[in-house]
């Protein structure tokens, strides 16, 4: 068997000056994590935050790696699922970090999907006003999106990610072999965020995914390349606009609708997970753009056909159970962080790879679109 140290690794830099960091992508990086951390941050103590599903398959390998490299570590294991991204588990993590007397210069390691990354990153961002933070993303979604860029936080009953801070990791270790244990539904959900980069401003990447998605799902070189291209796309935007003063909002394509649907389904992952909400939201954003005479119906249909073709939901009607009405969905949308002076901002599109930020959209327009598309 090939030694983890010899396996090929792709490096993508997030160019944030004094806070720049590497994203390393490839198989075997969990086994290499101890060495990578010890080499860059000698003498740190660590708390690994993870969930039960991930702990069962990857925590021992990470703990062994840290141990071999002489990095002192402990672990906090939480329930899996979106409901964990909330005040109760957040308090538990904060309490455990302080109880272990970790210092500001010590490290929180997020081992898991986006739920764990967002929650652990938020704790790292506020405990002692900012501890060190390393992401070890184990879901496709986390490897292509949530582990990069420093958005951290938790949900509330008012809406998604409404409490949090920007806090960049020092290092991201995306072990692509860890995806072998990821359930198929979760892989598809992460794929939606991958497609998002093509739809924002990389039409060539969208075309490539249309042709090669089966290889991406199968694993191997195409998957690693698609993850690396996604990280390059995100890193480029984050490096230009770290705190979403402007163009970073493009990364929210599909999220204004998607987040409302997640909140409206009570963050119940049996009904809808984040990437699925993004798939429905991106389809709606394209259809809404058609309605506003910004995008051709052909492009909107092409996007929906690709997302549906890989097995993702694309319509509100694809969500099981009853949804609250259009007015209730609009109430969630009005809580979106892009709202400014009470006016809605949406990410719309002029076609595949031509997304743009649309400010001051009339709520009445959004409401009638929601009514037209509502299943009930
Ligand atoms: N911060 C950001 O920039 C950003 C970007 C995108 C999404 N997000 C957030 O990320 C969250 C969604 O992340 P997610 O899709 O990774 O969900 P998740 O963290 O809930 O992980 C999905 C499921 O897969 C399991 N899992 C993860 N890795 C596994 C593995 N290798 N083997 C077996 N099981 C594994 C988890 O236990 C969970 O049940 C949402 O809360 C979303 O808001 C944040
Ligand atoms: O990194 C970003 O910026 C994103 O918008 C990426 C999104 O995929 C992600 O879901 C993010 O958490 C949404 O951010 P929010 O600011 O709308 O909560
Ligand atoms: Zn997202």
UniProtKB/TrEMBL annotation:
It is an enzyme of class 4 (lyase). Binds 1 divalent metal cation per subunit. Can use either Co(2+) or Zn(2+). Pathway: Metabolic intermediate biosynthesis; chorismate biosynthesis; chorismate from D-erythrose 4-phosphate and phosphoenolpyruvate: step 2/7. Its EC number is 4.2.3.4. Keywords: Amino-acid biosynthesis, Aromatic amino acid biosynthesis, Cobalt, Cytoplasm, Lyase, Metal-binding, NAD, Nucleotide-binding, Zinc. Residues 190-339 form the 3-dehydroquinate synthase C-terminal domain. It is found in: Cytoplasm. Zn(2+) binds at residues 193, 255, 274. InterPro entries: Dehydroquinate_synthase, DHQ_synth_AroB, DHQ_synth_fam, DHQS/DOIS_N, DHQS_C. Residues 76-188 form the 3-dehydroquinate synthase N-terminal domain. Signal peptide: none annotated. SUPFAM superfamilies: Dehydroquinate synthase-like. It catalyses: 7-phospho-2-dehydro-3-deoxy-D-arabino-heptonate = 3-dehydroquinate + phosphate. GO terms for biological process: amino acid biosynthetic process; aromatic amino acid family biosynthetic process; chorismate biosynthetic process. GO terms for molecular function: 3-dehydroquinate synthase activity; metal ion binding; nucleotide binding. NAD(+) binds at residues 114-118, 138-139, 151, 160. Its cofactor is NAD(+); Zn(2+); Co(2+). Pfam families: DHQ_synthase, DHQS_C. Transmembrane segments: none annotated. GO terms for cellular component: cytoplasm. Belongs to the sugar phosphate cyclases superfamily. Dehydroquinate synthase family. Catalyzes the conversion of 3-deoxy-D-arabino-heptulosonate 7-phosphate (DAHP) to dehydroquinate (DHQ). This is 3-dehydroquinate synthase. It comes from Nitratireductor arenosus.
């Amino acid at each position: 068997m090939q030694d983890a140290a010899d396996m090929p690794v792709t490096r993508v830099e997030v160019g944030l000056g004094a806070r720049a960091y590497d994203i390393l992508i490839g198989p075997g990086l969990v086994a290499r994590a101890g060495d990578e951390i010890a080499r860059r941050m000698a003498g740190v103590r660590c708390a690994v935050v993870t969930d039960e599903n991930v702990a069962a398959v990857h925590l021992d390998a990470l703990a062994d790696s840290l141990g071999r490299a002489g990095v002192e570590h402990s672990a906090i294991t939480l329930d899996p699922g979106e409901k964990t991204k909330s005040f109760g588990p957040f308090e538990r993590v904060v309490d455990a970090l302080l109880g272990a007397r970790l210092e500001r210069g010590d490290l929180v390691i997020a081992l898991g999907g986006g739920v764990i990354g967002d929650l652990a990153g938020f704790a790292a961002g506020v405990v002692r006003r900012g501890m060190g933070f390393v992401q070890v993303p184990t879901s496709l979604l986390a490897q292509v999106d949530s582990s990069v860029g420093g958005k951290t936080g938790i949900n509330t009953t008012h809406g998604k990610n409404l409490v949090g801070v920007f806090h960049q990791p020092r290092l991201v270790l995306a072990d692509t072999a860890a995806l072998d244990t990821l359930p198929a539904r979760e892989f598809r959900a992460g794929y939606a965020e991958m497609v998002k980069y093509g739809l924002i401003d990389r039409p060539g990447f969208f075309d490539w995914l249309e042709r090669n998605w089966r290889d991406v799902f199968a694993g191997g070189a195409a998957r690693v390349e698609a993850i690396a291209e996604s990280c390059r796309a995100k890193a480029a935007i984050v490096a230009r606009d770290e705190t979403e003063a402007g163009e970073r909002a493009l990364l929210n394509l599909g999220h204004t609708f998607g987040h409302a649907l997640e909140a409206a389904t009570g963050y119940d992952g049996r009904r809808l997970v984040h990437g699925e909400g993004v798939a429905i939201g991106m389809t709606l954003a394209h259809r809404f753009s058609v309605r506003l005479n910004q995008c051709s119906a052909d492009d909107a249909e092409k996007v929906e056909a690709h997302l549906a073709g890989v097995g993702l939901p694309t319509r509100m009607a694809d969500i099981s159970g009853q949804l609250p009405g259009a007015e209730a969905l609009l109430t969630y949308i009005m809580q979106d962080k892009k709202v400014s002076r009470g006016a809605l901002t949406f990410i719309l599109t002029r076609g595949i790879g031509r997304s743009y930020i649309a400010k001051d959209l009339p709520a009445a327009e959004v409401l009638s679109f929601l009514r037209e598309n509502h299943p009930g």
